[in-house]
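Fig. S4 source data, part A: sequence.
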Amino acid sequence: MSTEVTAKSPAPAPPGKSGAAAGGGLLQLMLDGLRRNMRQYGMLIALGLIVALFAVWTDGDLLLPRNVSNLVLQNSYILILAIGMMLVIISGHIDLSVGSLTAFIGSIAAVFMVNNDIPWPLAVVLCLAVGAVAGAAQGFFIAYLGIPSFIVTLAGMLVFRGLTEIFLEGQTLGPFPEGLQKVANGFLPEVGPQTNYHNLTLLLGFAVIAFVVIQEFRDRRRQQEFALDVPPMNLFVLKLVAISAALLVVTMLLASYKGAPIVLLILGALVVGFGYVMRNAIIGRHIYAIGGNLPAAKLSGVKDKKVVFLIFLNMGMLAALAGLVFAARFNAASPKAGLNFELEAIAASFIGGASMSGGVGTVLGAIIGGVVLGVLNNGMNLVGIGTDWQQVIKGMVLLAAVGFDVWNKRKGGS
């Protein structure tokens, strides 16, 4: 006796339901992609909300062309430090000395250029070399002698601050040569026909937008070739539109004033260069490996001591560059320069997506974190919030960013 089983065919969907289901599925797919990439997109969304809040609160003063230009100039040295600090934190270390090293390099630059009349291009090279030596010295103690980076850089913070006082003899020293001042405070020259906008800035901005779009598509295709998880196409396109629109707005605002600041070109070159190294170069992958899982990285043949040494050497050079930009912007070297710069750089890195445990973070994230802090400072100054409450608010933002990172990890683990 046999038993026959007949499969029932699914009932046809009611008319008009399939389109709604498809739309709901598409929305769910985008939401899922947003959740998986929340670390990447979260700060971009937060930055947009903060800008919108202060734009309304200040009656549009935040987005005035002059204020946007000043925002770039005022935060350039913190953004330079944040790039190097992000690499240090990704590797699982910390650097507390960068603020004092920034002041120390400014004092050396003043002694070279003001007291000894050394040509400023040569003095800049010498200052960068001094910064590299200072960073390499700390890197040697950390990488090859095994002393924790917290202790080494804390000692460095005290040493460099004391040397700054010694070199400047407790006094402010200036002014700096005009050529160096233009690097920190100058703008791109006017070229082309007379228009209502800065032509060279417009051309540069459109080139940057095209570069970003092409690079994003290349990165997405590379990730797909290696079978890595990528955001849904709709979310990816939405991200490109948002980034392009933001870059276009910044370009138009800068072009409406004096054009792009020269220091912005330096920042752009650093972001592109270090971004490429961290995404594509072997040493970039080694930095992520060391911070993510040091024992596994050693077993894989990563020369962890050499990599850590180079990370701190690089941090020293970037601190020297930030010190030169800061001293040139204020046209003087001061014993009190660089106070709390290390905390601003660390905060920018964590707000920009770095993880306390290392192995996570991007160069662009450090820039976004630094811009968040810069917009907060600028916006709160425009609306008249006192420095006491400003510190409280920035501390809460930092706590929220790190708390979000911890929550995101626990949710992913569960």
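Fig. S4 source data, part B ends here. The chain is about 75% helix and 0% strand.
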